[in-house]
Amino acid sequence: KARDLLDTNNNNDKTAICFAEPEKVDIANHLHLIVRPILDGSTDIVVPTRSDQLFQQTYPIEQYHSENFANLHFNSLAQQFKGFQAKDAKQ
Predict the structure, then answer these.
(1) Which helix H or strand E contains 41, and what residues bound it?
(2) C-alpha distances in angstroms, 83 versus 37, 58, 80, 88, 89?
(3) For 12-58, what is each residue's pLDDT tens digit?
């Protein structure tokens, strides 16, 4: 879990600030995985994604399409800034 990543014998100054919409209650079960790359210093920002197949099967089709469009739009905007050209970023 996230607290296990903190070294209590060392001055660990890493902090992760998380935001989730209130209806995303299950995200709390995954926070330890989401914040790990931040706490270990391998990245500054983590944007969790969901399984595209499950998303399409379990959400209204309008929400599926609008969120995919918004993600593509914001990813294309972010790519214009130095440091946001991650090779493994979902396009």
Answers:
(1) none
(2) 16, 34, 9, 13, 12
(3) 677 888 888 888 888 889 999 999 998 998 888 888 888 899 999 99
Contact 84, 78 (CB under 8 A): yes
Q: Which 8-state DSSP code applies to residue 23?
A: T
Q: Which letter, b or e, does each residue of 14-52 get, where b requires 16 or more Cβ atoms within 10 Å of its Cβ?
A: eeeeeeeeeeeeeeeeeeeebbbebbeeeeeeeeeeeee
Residue whose tokens read 């299950």: 26
The pLDDT of residue 91: 46
Best CA proximity match to 32, nearest among 18, 53, 52, 13? 18
